[in-house]
Specification:
This protein is mainly alpha-helical and 461 residues long. 61% of the residues lie in helices and 5% in strands. It is elongated and about 100 Å long. The structure holds arginine. The site of arginine has 10 residues, from helix 6. Arginine binds next to helix 6. It is an enzyme of class 4 (lyase). It comes from Nitratireductor aestuarii. Its EC number is 4.3.2.1.
């Protein structure tokens, strides 16, 4: 038999393979609450503007509420033959209330219907991520406060560079996840326009009130161009972009946790609740959660490229290609939610080995820059010359297999006559970090200021 929803001009129904490639009910059933809310708002508007009768609206909304509880209690029978969530619900509404159900789709198309459902879903997901990032930021601030003066090696090229504080390193992630959160908010702000009422692509001749439905559904205003409205998936692309960037941040930290937790580094110990053992090697404690966060980033990135590629050649307005938007976004959302939750758990629990960090911070001539800076400050050398003198001191220490602070004053004076006792104070890692008091620098006093700033900022929103 042909399709009840659009089968007027069709003599026969679709091939089974056509049905299989066409149906989206397997995944878009996730949109049922949004679909019902959209329909309730649309029906109320149709009644208010006199397009349908109050009696029809009453039946429609009662029927939709029945369907909502049927779906929620698992009694609803989804049908692949009915393609998608929109037609499954409308068909059931017809069974429940008869001809009045057929009036619901007046002045509406599935093109604006799916756009409004999906926007509502993405907006709610963005609000979830906003809260989850708030929890993650809080966890970072708590750990940073504990470790604002804990010295660790800072790296460039993963080679020891200069001593920094662990609190400062954690606060770097606060900046990153803070930017992610502001991207979430920007995205919400930009997508906060209601597609409902654009109809198929041209708008409608019925005297609808799009401002009424926009308001009822919690959008700031209706969209302004009906063609753009049904063609646009920027909100989904923006979601995937910000998810990918946030994923990259999580992945970089995950990679650091993997490195830090190796016995060779020994900077951190993962809690039992966020690590796993090996079935053959009894001594092992593996950072699986961190590794999976790192890996799942690939999946989220893939979804972004996937949807960008779906959209890139589409002429205006709606094409069925756009049905491919949902699985990408649903999976990216579920994946990112889990990644953020796992990272939050790890950060809360992670044990810090301050002694190992400090020891490593002193290796690799990490205070060489401090020596060069001292020569500039105390002996008036131009920085380039000071750099050269320091290089010779490093070479000598390397030859003697000791740290810079273990070179004798005679040795140092043989390299440059202006060096005196005072130099030793800048060669310790603690003094090195304490001296980095520039705005945003690693000095414990600066790190504390930034923690305070962030606490204030988080309390405000
Ligand atoms: N299931 C479709 C989607 O996800 C709904 C819109 C269908 N519209 C249409 N004209 N076939 O995009």
């Amino acid at each position: 038999a042909s399709n009840r929803m659009w089968g007027g001009r069709f003599a026969s129904g679709p091939d089974a393979i056509m049905e299989a490639i066409n149906a989206s009910i397997g995944f878009d059933r996730k949109l049922y609450t949004q679909d019902i809310r959209g329909s309730l708002a649309h029906a109320a508007m149709l009644a208010k503007t006199g397009i349908i009768s109050a009696e029809d609206e009453k039946q429609i909304s009662q029927g939709l509420n029945t369907i909502l509880s049927e779906i929620e209690s698992g009694k609803f029978e989804f049908s692949t033959r009915l393609e998608d969530i929109h037609m499954n619900i409308e068909a059931r509404l017809a069974e429940l209330i008869g001809p009045a159900a057929g009036r619901l789709h007046t002045a509406r198309s599935r093109n604006d219907q799916v756009a409004v459902d999906f926007r509502l879903w993405v907006k709610e997901e963005l609000q979830r991520i906003d809260r989850a990032l708030g929890d993650l930021l809080e966890a970072f601030l708590n750990r940073a406060e504990e470790h604002y003066a804990t010295v660790m090696p800072g790296f460039t090229h993963l080679q020891t560079a200069q001593p920094v504080t662990f609190g400062h390193h954690l606060m770097a992630y606060v900046e990153m996840f803070g930017r992610d959160r502001s991207r979430v908010r920007d995205a919400i702000e930009r997508m906060d326009e209601c597609p409902l009422g654009a109809a198929a692509l041209a708008g409608t001749g019925f005297p609808t009130d799009r401002f009424m439905t926009a308001k009822a559904l919690g959008f700031r205003e209706p969209t302004r161009n009906s063609i753009d409205t049904v063609s646009d998936r920027d909100f989904a692309l923006e979601f995937l972009s910000l998810a990918a960037i946030c994923g990259v941040h999580l992945s970089r930290l995950a990679e650091e946790i993997v490195i830090w937790s190796t016995p060779q580094f020994g900077f951190v110990r993962l809690s039992d609740s966020f690590s796993t053992g090996s079935s053959i090697m009894p001594q092992k404690k593996n950072p699986d959660a961190a590794e999976l966060i790192r890996a799942k980033t690939g999946r989220v990135n893939g979804h972004l490229i996937g949807l960008l590629t779906v959209m890139k050649g589409l002429p205006l307005a709606y094409s069925k290609d756009m049905q491919e938007d949902k699985e990408a976004v649903f999976d990216a959302a579920e994946t990112l939610d889990l990644m953020i939750a796992a990272m939050t758990g790890m950060i809360k629990d992670i044990e810090i080995n301050a002694a190992a960090m400090k020891k490593a911070a002193g290796s690799g001539f990490s205070t060489a820059t401090d020596l060069a800076d001292w020569l500039v400050r105390e002996a008036g050398l131009p920085f380039r010359e000071a750099h050269h003198v320091t290089g010779r001191a490093v070479a000598l220490a390397e030859e003697k297999k000791c740290g810079l602070e273990k070179l004798s004053l005679e040795d140092l004076q043989a390299i440059h006559e202006s060096i005196n006792e005072g130099v030793y104070s800048v060669l310790s890692v603690s003094n090195s970090v304490k001296s980095r008091t520039s705005y945003g620098g690693t000095a414990p006093s600066e790190v504390r200021k930034q923690i305070k700033n962030w606490r204030k900022r988080l309390a405000k929103d």
